[in-house]
Amino acid sequence: MNTGKFFLALGVFLLPFHATAGEEVNVYSYRQPFLVQPLFDVFTEQTGIKVNTVFARQGLVERLKQEGANSPADVILTVDISRLAESAEAGVTQAVRSRKLRRNIPQAYRDPRRHWFGLTTRGRIIVASRERVQPGEITRYEDLALPKWRGRICTRSGKHIYMVALTASAIARHGRDGARRWLAGLKNNLARKPQGNDRAQVKAIRDGVCDVAVINTYYMGKMLADPKQVSWAESVFMIFPNQAGRGVHVNVSGMAMTRSAPNRANALRLMEFLSGDAAQQIYAEQNHEYPVKRSTPRSGLVASWGEFKADDLALARIAELRGEASRLADEVGYDN
Ligand code: FE
């Protein structure tokens, strides 16, 4: 069926897209236009397939549920394993079989059931004050719970998906009780009630509120690129934790094909394109992230942060443990 005419008939579903007679693919994206538009432009140039995009900060999965079989969306782009798993669990995605995706994306970063695929990775690292913390003083996530850091740590909410995934990785390594003790110890060391985003924690270090924080790697790049935030970034040094053990906890941005995808073949082409070298390099560089494809070079800045060992725990396992991790945050009163 001509999908353009189909949407015209439905009227309301047409609104976000410029339906054309030619080939197209429709993307619902939680990722911002500046990140994905450059990629879509290259894709269209190479394939002649037009990419129509709807951007939103939230609610796209709910929208897909409401639209059901009539949804115009083919591909979802989002960040964090929680959101990817949520989409799959909501029943709005479908399994995708592709040798290219399997070859380009390491196993730990894709769904064993083939519903979601990582595209970029980011480490959740420790940063510490250049003035008040010595190199080597803190080297592991476990150290965050040591009494010596009492009143010296800042983090965002323990219920935020980035923190929940980190706690889930602790459950995977230390069991529920071990992870609970760790989280309670970390909570005990907080300089203030959890608030703000990752960058706000670095600002708090600059302002002398705390000495240590936990943030995603790409925020260092974002702060350095923002004249108002350079001094925040420059007040800290980066610590890639647990290098003698499990490695750095990593998460992904990723993609899924919608269950109702009207342009399935084009959606697959777009997904495969996004996992390839050219797209990987552009996508990772735009947001100071790591390409998920191992052979793709990192941006100059990201490469300057050095090599590190990443935790090889499958993200699917993090997804399974995220409910329990979120409950632990409640149990230890992390945000209180
Ligand atoms: Fe983020």
Describe this structure as you would to a colleague:
The structure is a single chain. By secondary structure, the protein is α/β, with parallel strands linked by helices. Helix content is 41%, strand content 16%. The chain contains 13 helices and ten strands. Strands 1, 2, 3, 4, 5, 6, 7, 8, 9 and 10 form a ten-stranded mixed sheet that branches. Strand 1, helix 2 (33-47) and strand 2 form a beta-alpha-beta unit. The model is unreliable at 1-16 (pLDDT under 50). Bound molecules: fe (iii) ion.
Q: Specify the number of helices.
A: 13
The stretches of 5 or more residues where confidence is low (pLDDT under 50) are 1-16
Structure class = alpha/beta
Bound molecules: fe (iii) ion
Kindly state the percentage of residues in helix.
Answer: 40-55%
Give the SSE string. Answer: HEHEHEHEHEEHHEHHEEHHEHH
Largest sheet: 10 strands, mixed
Number of strands: 10
Principal-axes geometry comes out as globular
Distance between the termini: 55 Å
- Arithmetic mean pLDDT: 93
- Classify the beta-strand content into a percent band: 15-25%
Radius of gyration: 21 Å
